[in-house]
Design brief:
Number of helices: 8
Largest sheet: none
Radius of gyration: 26 Å
Oligomer: single chain
CATH topology: Transcription Termination Factor Rho, Rna-binding Domain, Chain A, Domain 1
Distance between the termini: 68 Å
Number of domains: 1
CATH architecture: Orthogonal Bundle
CATH superfamily: SAP domain
Strand content: under 5%
CATH class: Mainly Alpha
Number of strands: 0
Order of helices and strands: HHHHHHHH
Structural class: mainly alpha
Length: 168
């Protein structure tokens, strides 16, 4: 797959240093909104540009999360296709007809409501995918398929008793 120069240059992250990206986001949104929106701890307690940059440079997942926030919330680009979603944000191809828009207006309360909805959907998804809405403690226990080895030489207190008895 050949990438044209125009397609790569259409990505707002092309040629953008992490420090400039972070400064733009902090100037527009502030530390509190960044902390709630990205759920990255370096933005929560005593945040600073230097400490955040140090963490982001060492932690690839956090850097990708912040870059995705920059593309889809700050630059307000449409969501990527499934094939592009698998790539890191810096390597994604932005079609030439898509241009960055105005930044989304975010508040802490709005982000907290969105996070609560995400958590609810995730809990419902996990609960439905198992096929049972009952908690584990309420489900009947399955009988074990392992043979019952209740010999006189082994006891539940000493797991090595049988081995030691055979060794003698």
């Amino acid at each position: 797959m050949s990438i044209s120069v125009e397609e790569q240059q259409n990505n707002p992250l092309h040629g953008l240093k992490l420090e400039i990206l972070l400064n733009e986001l902090v100037d527009y949104y502030g530390w509190e909104i960044l902390a709630v929106a990205t759920n990255i701890n370096c933005f929560q307690k005593n945040p600073s540009i230097d400490s955040s940059l140090k963490f982001l440079r060492k932690t690839e997942w956090a850097q990708e999360k912040l870059e995705a926030f920059y593309l889809y919330k700050f630059k307000h680009l449409p969501r990527p296709s499934d094939s592009q979603y698998d790539l890191p944000p810096r390597q994604r191809l932005i079609p030439l007809d898509q241009t960055p828009g105005e930044p989304m207006e975010l508040t802490v309360q709005l982000l907290q409501t969105l996070n609560e909805r995400k958590a609810e959907r995730a809990a419902n998804f996990r609960g439905n995918s198992r096929g049972s809405s009952k908690p584990r403690s309420a489900r009947p226990q399955r009988s074990s398929s392992r043979p019952d080895n209740n010999s006189q030489s082994s006891s539940p207190a000493d797991p090595w008793a049988k081995f030691n008895a055979e060794k003698k």
